[in-house]
Amino acid sequence: MDALASRRSTRVFTPKALRTVSSSQTGSQTGSPTPRTQSPQPRSMQEPVLVTTWDTTMPVVAIGQSQTGELHVLDAQAPIAQRHAVVFGMQANDTLVFQGICDICVLKGTVRVYEHESSGQWDRVYSPVSHPLVSLRAQTQTKDEAERDAEAQRMYELWATSHNECEVVVAVRAVDCGLEHLGRVAPAYASLFTGSVAADSEQLVQAIGVPGMTPMRTVNAGVQVLQTPEDWAQALDQASTMPQRLDDGFEPIAPVYAVAGAQGQGKSTFSRMLVNRLVARFGRVFYMETDLGQSEFAAPGALSLTLVSAPVLGPPFTHTGRTEAYHAAYMGVVTPKNDPDRYAACVQRLAQVYRDHVRSERARGSPAVPMVVNTQGWTRGLGLDLLYALCQSVCPTHFVQAYDPATSDASLVDFATVEGCDPQVLWITGMSSDRMQGGDAGDAGESGRRVQKLAAHDMRTLSLLSLMYSAWTAQGVATWNMHKPLAARTPVRVPICDLVFWMGEEDVPPSQVLRAVNGTLVGVVCVARAPGAGAHEWSRDEIRGLYADGVSDQAAAALSEPGARMLLRSHVRARMGDDAGPVLVPQIVYGMPSLTATTFLTHALVRSIDVRSGHVHLVIPPQSPAVDSPMYRVVGIVKGPGPSAFGVDVPVQAMLDGGFAERAMGASSGRHTAARRRRAPMETNVGIQEAPYVSVEVDEGVGASAARARGGQTRRALQ
Description:
Blueprint: H1 2-7, H2 23-26, E1 49-50, E2 60-65, E3 71-73, E4 85-90, E5 95-108, E6 110-113, E7 116-118, E8 123-127, E9 135-139, H3 150-160, E10 168-174, H4 182-185, H5 202-208, E11 213-216, E12 218-219, H6 230-241, E13 256-260, H7 267-282, E14 285-289, E15 302-308, E16 327-330, H8 340-363, E17 371-374, H9 382-394, E18 398-403, E19 424-429, H10 456-468, E20 470-472, E21 478-480, E22 492-495, E23 500-502, H11 513-517, E24 521-527, H12 540-546, H13 553-558, E25 565-567, H14 569-576, E26 587-590, E27 598-610, E28 615-619, E29 634-638, H15 652-656, H16 660-667, H17 674-679
């Protein structure tokens, strides 16, 4: 990292009006920034502002569904709760803003959402008030009409029998995916998808509202609407339509797009839009997540490379862990500041996996798959050094730089100092870091909606809760089960000898390892599907052989990073003699898993450890039944650092789920009222002490409580 720090540029960015950029200084920077008065941040208004232009005089057909699945037309005055779907016409450039969750299918024409052109197929759209509300914009037909499924075709037939043709015809279907019940587990997030109806939106809701989806005519202070500003649209057009470069052999180079900028500048939102554009063009796109604290597809604490083949139509917590990463590396922390070398090595490994995939696809004659790299928002000091290391590893062909037009301190990578990297630089104005400008996040507007300003830890909590409460239907459709607490779920019973316990840098005595792991959130590691060059590729038979008599010392060494300290099971058995059964001796490694031989799968909660039978009980999020289960490749778990060292931990909402929240709020202090007993008759006056792994007692004595890192006290100049 010191070498990178000495090579990186220390100059400060200033707008075009204040400086002249030469091509020799900035490589092939073709789009230098200019001061602008238009900001790409979503709207934040003090007064109610019109956001939905759809006219209620347009034709609408409300559709119900019988118990046998038959679709029929409902009366216009039928209650919204009886609606299965609504079909309505739109004119070109009409907009519709809503809060909630629904499925949309464009029966005629095209609707643009998240820069995805929806037409002919059902798309599930998530629009929580914690993020900019989704806006549907109608367009005339811009591509060939896709074939409708049976239900969509029936809806179009019901529509066509009673109404004239419109430019755009949209079907909105109610869904019950389970995520709308998030408030049952975390009451603080109960209003993300639901809210009271404003007076000026009542007619709109009565016209096209369905259960779980509330259209909004206007928005108030603090409520934001997702929009694509002009410079973002230009950058998206340029990045997604530009011809591919050719290498020395006249072969097309796979496009690599790196999106960089400070925190709160909209990198993730822009990356999501760019992914949707590239999926429409190439069919598939790799997404490399390098932001440990706010991941898009993987859970927090991991860097991942995910192959995306469907549009992304919601914030990260709506699809966390839904797609198995092509390759992932687990760090267990939300910032790389404590181990920048491993972070850089993880990025380099993911970049190498992507290049290996591109070479194999080229050998088969398949087109190259592009990649989008979402970087972290730490762009100063060590963070800038890591950004230089990332650019050197991934070698982007396009570098999208988000900057704040109100300031002049946005640093740009000097690609003249990055060997073999000469990307085209695209500039976009970034979102304001204060997402609630113009309104207090705690105030409710005239519509009665309480706007929530979510911090980074809230985003991580939502992602972890979404992952841990995820579920799948028999047809492979992603759902959530918020009605079954984690404590009531059946854990996976794994023999201790079949797992490698990677303890990282934690200096835990071997006799205390099981106690240290019990009740914590760990990373589940499995054998990699894409081993590195020269690395051993494990077959199914070899993986099964690991479980014959537990993971051997040789296998644990091959699956661990070089230099890791190991507690050899063979030595422990020799010392314990005949009293040591194979199931009672864990394979402990003080280090991290190998980046080439293993890959991170998911998080798991260690529910309990049965020492007598020698089993670990893990609560693991269910894997998709549509793919070959990766569970047979699991070889170990990783214990990350605690929250005091920026580690990823179990959300407290999950610990209190199942009635413990009520006890925590009053039972232990004697304020368990009769009304509360009626709501939770099963509870007794036992208090929060029964909540597993949760304590409200005061720690006493020297060393009784862990030291808490206070990053806010760090001098800004040193960050």
